[in-house]
Each structure stands twice: as structure tokens, then as C-alpha cells.
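Inputs:
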Amino acid sequence: MIIAEQKPLSEIKELVASAEQVLVLGCGTCVTVCFAGGDREAQIVASSLRMSTKLDKQPKQVDHVTVQRQCEWEYLDQVSEQIEAVDIVLSLGCGIGVQAVAEHFPNTWVVPGLNTTFLGLPVEQGVWDERCAACGDCVLGLTGGICPIARCSKSLLNGPCGGSEDGHCEISPDTPCAWQLIYDRLSSKGRLEVLMDLQPPKNWSTSRDGGPRKIVREDLRLVDQKEEN
Amino acid sequence: MAENSNGYLSGSTLEKVLNAGHFAVTGELGPPQNADAEVIREKARLLKGYCDAVNLTDNQTAIVRMSSIGAGAILVQEGLEPVIQMTCRDRNRLAIQSDLLGAYALGMRNLLCLTGDHQSFGNHPTAKNVFDMDSIQLVQTISSMRDDHIFQNGEELKGVEPRFFVGAAAAPFADPIDFRPYRLGKKVNSGANFIQTQLVYDIPAFKTYMEKVRELGLHHKSYILAGVGPLKSLGMAKYMKKNVPGILVPDEIIARMSKASKPWAGKKKGELTKEDKKARTKAWKEEGIQICIDLIKDIQQIEGVAGVHIMAIEWEEAVKPIVEGAGLYPRPEVAEIAA
Amino acid sequence: MEGDCHYLEGNLNARRRVEYIGQLLDQIGLDRQRLKMINISAAMGNEFAQHAVEFTNQITELGPNPLTHVQGEDSKEKTR
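Outputs:
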């Protein structure tokens, strides 16, 4: 899932400084699960903003509401009245949620309350690790299910580079060496020969490097929407 | 390009020395963190005649320095053969290929392909990195430009192709240690003509590594130059042993450095006069050079090792006594025509 | 006592959460000194009273809740 974390309150205050009425918009999906922008966090942020702006003697009216997913029009439609009634929407969705609000409500000024950090998972409660770089051309089949693009700090395809020590990456003792993990996994499966193949330079055009990406599934499209585009 | 038609890959001095079966010596020169050409010239004078070729580091440890190719052009003017180091950290495949076309046009003939240290170590940790290719893919790309006259994309390279003597690095003692000879195999099989290893201090461990290398037949396909470097002080020896991944410093060498500073041992910092410190530094440096000479002599006895790569960055003065002490001076004159 | 809780690790969890709320109070502009966590057992009546007196003195010194004394504003936040 998408992992995010909250911006500091000081930065959020700057982002909403020009507004008198603010709607804190939580999202009930990924950012709820990673405790960054769900209904609970939306309540806390709204309350913190009310208290803090009041102490600054510039009190704002801050309300909150949470939708199931900010990244789908139908859920945003459910709160359109509340969104359109305020000066600024503080979205506690990921970067997709913020943009969905901007796109769906052209007259509304929306600002982000979170920093969207990576695609990953909770390895334990309160600890999240990156797992996928969304490169658009999955290589996990070559590496025993451990991603060298997202998890090797140099995204090497012919690793390990030689900079790791005791299984951690040269950049930090907290970062496991992806290629050590791959090596260990392939070794335990008796499949080290896979590592002997020379992997050619990756085609990065399917990644962000190829420009903004888009998927069109003709089999799923509705006729009337096709005609619109 | 007469040198292209005489049987050599590149016609570089380094290639000729190795091809003739001489024990090669390469050195290393760190370009300055400014635009002063004189720094390069001065260091070049210290190394000229003592090395067959000299590596020019490429923003080593991710710190901005004069470019390897820029410094290489100065070395060519000075009549000292450069080995251009090229990392994959700062350039994508377009920039790498184009820079190397330029380097060849400026007279550079040796190339060392590296992945590069992560920028988080250096002085611009907020930079975006590239890592479009890795060192192995770089070796393959540059070899194909030379041998198949094609760019990385498969398009034909028309006209003069860059003919580099292509090298790669090896870290014999890095993790996972069982994989290191195979990783070297990947580099050799991707086309590396020569290999320069990480610093070797532990001869028995290096012998074990070379045994495996010979078993894989890699020493027949590529010239392997063992990395050596003089220790400056006891502290440096201890630091490397403890903190640098992939470098093994045996206790025996620590003991030799410790013995060198015995006259000053047990004295507290305040008790050492300026003269004491100077004398101790001198004693350490002399022992460091002697250890390096002894290591080279041991390495020369190991089957499959074709030369040494002496890394004495910011201590280029040490190269002369090391090369002389190891009996590797004068450097051989190599014929223009391949044997 | 710390770590020795009827709800097993409950008071350790509480400590981390109180720390989080302390940071939040600082960010909001309320002094984190207004919040304090202590560990005490049911048999420590005297200690409890002592802590209560100390903390009362501490917050009295800090003065009234600034949120209830901002001029011209309703004080709905104080009830939250």
C-alpha cells in the first residue's frame, strides 16, 4: 500500500494560513492503515489547528470529514458540499488524493497535509519499509521475490555491489542489503545460478523516466466515456 | 589510428605492458576540489616513470572534484597515461557514452568502470542519483562500442570507434564473500580486460580468493591487478580493519605499525613534543611503505596476478619508494608492435 | 511500576503515547509541562497524593489554560 506521514503542524499552518474556513479531509484507505491520514488523524489535526490558531489569536473554523477513498470521484462526490463550502481543503490523503480533490473541484484550493513517502508495508506495528518502486517492468521473478530496484540503494541488477557489511547496505546500518537478501534466498533455494546471468541495462521507459504513465484497458471502458475523450 | 590495426584492443601502454607479460604497476591520482591544473601536473610528476598508467578518480566518495576526463587530458599532455574512472552514479547511458567518445578523442585509452559510491556519503547528499546502468552493464556497453561498433541501443557507431582497454573493480573480501569470485566472473564475462582489486593486506585470504579465480579460469581471460596501498599510521590501519567493509587488515600488520611507533608508545598526547610527533609520523610512513613493498613481493608470487594497483591518494610521494623497493623500477619500455 | 502492569505492557504503550501527545502539545503551542505520566500502584496512596500536589503546583505556576483565555473567542476547545 501507499505509505505516508504527516507534515509538521508548523508547515500545515503555513499552508492554510490564508484561510478562515478549513476542511481537514481524511482518507479511509492506505493512509488510515498507516496511521497518517485516517479519520482519527483528521480529528487530531483539525483539533490541533483549532487550538493552535486560536493561541495565535487568528482562530480558524476547522472541520473534518473522512471519505472511504479520496482517489475515486464517487467518494469525493459524497462530500462535495462540505468541500465547496470552505476556503481551503487540507487533504490527509496521499498525493493522489490531493490531486483528485484539485481535479474534481476546480474552484477549491487544496493543500497536502501528508508527505507521501513510498509503496511498502508495515514490517511490524509502527515500522514501515519500502518494497516497490512501481518501475513498470517487474523483475521479482529473477530475484526470488526481493526487489533490487526499490530495495538496493543503487537499483543494481547485477549486484551485490561490495559495499554491504554484515548484511546491511553501505548507506545505513538500518537498511538491509537487498542483494544479500536475494543471495541468501536464492542460495537457500539452490538457485544461485540465476545470479550468473548478465542482466542488460533496464528499460526505464516504463518507469517514471518515460514520462507520466497511463494504462488504457479497452475491454473495461464504457462506450459513452470513450466518445467523450 | 595505427595502434588499432596492430592487434591491440586499445594500444595503451598498460595493455602493452600486460600483453608482453610484464608485472604491471598502476597508480592513482585524486583530482582536486577546484579547477587548478597545476595540482594534477605536480602529482603527475611524482608518478611519471613509476607507473604504467594512473587512475583518475571520478568524484570519489561522491565529493565534487575536477572531472576524471578533464584531469585525464592534463595527464596526456604530461605524457603520463591515464586510466579514466567512470561511475554510474552521476551519468546516464547517454552521458557516459558521449563523455567517453570525448575522452577517446582527447587521447585517453584506459577506462575503469565502476558503479560508484552512493551520494549519501559525499558532500551533496541531497542530490538525485542516476544508476541507469551498473558497472557490469557499463563494461559491456563500452566493449561493444569498441568490438561491435554499436551504441548501447544497438545502433551502429559509424566512423571512429572509441577503443578503450576496459577495466573493472573487484572487492575480494566484501559480502557475500562466497559470491565474490563469481561476481568477478560476471565482470570478466561482460568484457573486462583488466581488473583492479580493493586494497589487499591479508595475503592468505587473497590467495584463497585467487585459487577460486584460477579455478574459474578468469586469470586467463582478464589481467588481474591486486590493489595495494601504504598505511600512513597505526590509527589508519586500525580504522580500516574496523570500519571499512571489504578490507581485511591482519593483526600482524597492525603489530608491525604498532612496533614502528614503540619509542613513543605509552606517552600521553600532551607529553609528545612536535618533534616526537614528526618522528613518529616518519616511522609510521616508513613502515607503511615497507609493508606495502612486502605485500607486493608476496603478491608477485601468486599465480594469476598480473600486476599491482598502488593506491596512495594524497601521498603520491610514496609511490616512488614502493615501486623501487619492490624491484619494479624502471618500468619496461613496450614495443609498438604486439608480440 | 514501569513495565509491571496489570495490563501487561499497557503502561509502556501509554508512556510512548504520552510522549507523542507531549510533542503534539508543543507543536500546538501548549506547554507539554501540562501533561505528566507517573506509574503508581493502588497501594501507594501517599505517593499519589504527593504527585498530585506537585503537579497541581506545577500547572498552577504555568497559569490557566491559554485556550480559555484568548480574548473574544468562544472556548469550545476547552471541553475537548
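Remarks. Residues 114 and 233 of chain B are 28 Å apart (CA to CA). The mean pLDDT of chain B is 95.
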